[in-house]
Amino acid sequence: MGDSQGRDEVGRGVELLVRQVGHWQHPRWAAPASRGNLSRADLVHRLVQEIANLAADAEGQPRRSVPRLDNDLVLPDQLRVVAADLLAAGPPEETLARAATEVAATRTAL
Fold first, then answer.
1. Res. 6 pLDDT band, cuts 50 70 90
2. Among 13, 20, 81, 93, which residue's CB has the most CB atoms within a 10 Å radius?
């Protein structure tokens, strides 16, 4: 039953973040994030990479770099894809908790 809660938390966090940024245009993506020395786009891409790493670990696969595409408007879709991969991998509760924490921290920093 705990896995279901973790899955729900990750899914809900990703959807909230996508709703928060899904309508952004390039200037808003290029603006600095409130955390670190990164643009908002760089911060979201860092989250995409972290979630992809967690998914690879859960699948027992090597970690791969997620391409940083020229168009920042694809970042919400990239996040949805890697989050779906993570959830499909059936990771342990600790991994889901870490993913949910990363998503929430990114939302706050945007």
1. confident
2. 13
Question: CB burial class (10 A; 0-12, 13-18, 19+) of residue 19?
Answer: exposed
What's the CA dihedral at 67, 72, 74, 75 to 10 degrees?
A: 70
Q: What is the average pLDDT score of the chain?
A: 94
The pair of structure tokens assigned to 62 is 């090597």
Q: Taking the model in full, what pTM does it have?
A: 0.93
Which tokens hold the place of 73? 């408007």
Q: State the Cα angle at 48 between 47 and 52, rounded to 5°.
A: 115
Torsion angle in degrees (nearest 10) through CA of 84, 99, 50, 24:
70
Distance CA 12, CA 23 (A): 18
Alpha carbons 71 and 64: distance in angstroms, whole number: 20
Q: 1: which 2 tokens?
A: 């039953």
